[in-house]
Design a protein that fits this description.
Number of helices: 3
Distance between the termini: 22 Å
Number of strands: 5
Oligomer: single chain
CATH architecture: 2-Layer Sandwich
Strand order of the largest sheet: 1-5-4-3-2
CATH class: Alpha Beta
Order of helices and strands: EHHEEEEH
Length: 111
Amino acid sequence: MNFNEIDYFTKDFRRLSKKYKSLPDDLLEFKKVISGFPLGRGKHFIILTATETVKIMKARLFCRYLKGSSLRIIYAYYEKKQMIEFIEVYPKSEKSKEDRQRINNYLRNFK
């Protein structure tokens, strides 16, 4: 499985990594999980948007630093390319929902 990040994700991730020190290791663990199950398993994964070529997923990213709480992560899964591209990461304390405008821009630029 190949992993990529859009620029906005990288910027958000760097900012949050300063606040939550375990975040880089937590993302590596998350990558291992979604390598085996890209669409996730259980109630912690949901498909936000699905087209023929890409599925936009929202999942919980468990952070050891938060001790039981979790962050939210939005990613795009390309089944044919076997690729996952990270779009957004955020804590629920900062915002309650994903940035729909960012997802729509991502899909528009994808086409």
